[in-house]
Amino acid sequence: MNDPLVTAYQAREAQYAALRDAALAHTTQLIGEAGLKIHNITGRLKRPESLADKLRRKPGRYRTLEDVTDLVAVRVITYFESDVAAVSRLLEAHHEINWEHSVDKSMMHDPDRFGYMGVHYVVRVPHLVKQFVPHVTEPPQHYEVQIRSILQHAWAEIEHDLGYKSREAVPREVQRRFYRLAGLLEMADEEFMALDRLSRDYAETLPERVRDEPDSVFIDAQSIKHLLGVSPVRDLDEAVAAALGVPLLTRWPDPERPQRLATLLHYVGVHSVGGLLGELRRGRADILDFATRLLPRLPEAWLPAGGVRPGTALVNHALLRACANPSLNPQEIITALDMSGVLSAQQLVDSVLDAYAGVIGAAGPDPRHT
Predict the structure, then answer these.
(1) Phi, psi angle pair for 59, to nearest 5°
(2) CB neighbours (10 Å) of residue 165?
């Protein structure tokens, strides 16, 4: 590595590393403030040996380090191909783009080739970034931002690992398999985008469907998330909290709770929103009675939080159903509620059955007791 540009780059590597870190922080902040949901953002500094290889492959093309526009790169990996365009528009709005050296690779491939269809921007270093780079006589002026979807990234990494840097490098015997894989990846990208749209449409129509045709709505994480904020679930949760003299923790941060509640309800045989709502209305008094008997017996399971969490009514309803069916396995309930390590299976079983006996006035012991 005797090229003078490589030597100059090695002497200023700390400055380029500072630029990488500042550019990464700046891009992360922009995307976060825009509310865009992406997979990850990383920064990359070109290795001196990679620069030497680039200079050897393209002799005479680069006269100064400023001519090498990819010494510093920020890579944005999105979940969906459609998000690549959203990130691209955001960067264009907040940066001065060097269009001569920027490229949208989706415009470069033949229609029968998926290839690496990401976007490369060479951007001028913004003032917000420049202030974090050590002052030198000739500070770096540009860095690269690469934007890809997860599948485009996978293609690019595998293609690079195989050593195929261009279409002409692919042996003719291998090209057909590349084309077949290209079609599969393009279909996968489109299907993932379709799934994302369907998921968002499902969430948007849930309130109306729960109101008008609840029997057609399946119990899942999204429907439970909606139910936690409306009657009768919310009303019954508030009644349990009031009976115990504690607050209902409506802002409790637990994104996995709806899924756990859905799993629990499925286990005890509740599968439709309509069926659940009917049972909650008919069994309101028993659920409230059961909860106020059970929860004081298990303070370690909920009291450290300072109140009861949304969905408490659903948990107690499911436990009531489990009590009525001796064939159900208590360990499955502990797993669904994520209570492993908090209470032993037998502690939970004994406390639940005692509370259940109080509700129904049972005289004989349940075989699941210790």
Answers:
(1) -65, 135
(2) 11
Tell me the chain's radius of gyration from C-alpha atoms: 30
**Is the residue at 114 inside a domain?**
yes
Residues 182 and 218 reside in one and the same domain: no
Going through the chain in order, the beta strands assigned E by DSSP cover: 40-45, 72-78, 103-104, 119-124, 142-149
Q: What pLDDT sits at residue 240?
A: 94
Looking at the structure, tell me whether residues 304 and 158 fall in a common domain.
no
Separation of alpha carbons 200 and 217, rounded Å: 15
Long-range contacts from 194-199, C-beta under 8 angstroms, 24+ separation: 196/79, 196/80
Instruction: Give yes or no: residues 355 and 311 share one domain.
Output: yes
Domains in the chain: how many in total? 2
Checking if the pLDDT of 161 tops 70, the result is: no
Task: Give how far the C-alpha of residue 360 lies from the chain's centroid of Cα atoms, to the nearest Å.
Answer: 44
* Per-chain mean pLDDT for the chain: 84
What pLDDT does residue 110 have?
54
Answer whether 6's CB lies under 8 Å from 52's CB: yes
Q: Mind listing the pLDDT tens digit for each residue in 320-329?
A: 888 888 787 7
**35 is in which domain, residue-wise?**
4-187
CB 146 within 8 A of CB 118: yes
How many percent of the chain have pLDDT more than 70? 87
Answer yes or no: is 201 within a domain: no
Q: Which residue has the higher pLDDT, 64 or 112?
A: 64
Task: Assess whether 218 and 167 both reside in one domain.
Answer: no
Q: Are residues 218 and 161 in the same domain?
A: no
What pTM, to 2 d.p., does this model score? Answer: 0.62
* Domain co-membership, 20 together with 111: yes
- pLDDT digits over 303-312, tens only? 777 889 999 9
Q: Do 253 and 331 have their domain in common?
A: yes
The answer to the question of residue 199 being in a domain is no
Mapping DSSP onto H, E and C, the string for 218-282 reads ECCHHHHHHHCCCCCHHHHHHHHHHHHCCCECCCCCCCCHHHHHHHHHHHCCCCEHHHHHHHHHH
Same domain, 130 and 266: no
Position with higher pLDDT, 344 vs 152:
152
